[in-house]
Design brief:
91% of the residues lie in helices and 0% in strands. The chain is an all-alpha fold. The model has no long low-confidence stretch (mean pLDDT 83).
Length: 74
């Protein structure tokens, strides 16, 4: 059980590192396209876009996982 929890923690840590890397990359692209990223409208636009992408990807992953479970049972 300890090994399972440790594996989950390490996986979550790598996920956080990947998320931070993507955050930096997306901010750099956003800044290159829209100019400064320090204004409130730019920050809000960035937050909304990232949220929308996160929601869409989460839905997609859920559907893929559901299909994989269904196929595994067959």
């Amino acid at each position: 059980e300890v090994i399972d929890k440790l594996a989950a923690l390490v996986t979550a840590a790598f996920g956080l590192v990947a998320a931070l890397a993507w955050n930096g990359a997306i901010q750099a692209v956003f800044k290159a396209v829209f100019g400064t990223a320090e204004s409130i409208p730019a920050m809000l636009t960035y937050a909304v876009l990232v949220t929308l992408v996160a929601v869409l990807v989460t839905i997609w992953i859920g559907r893929v996982a559901s299909r994989a479970k269904t196929e595994k049972r067959k």
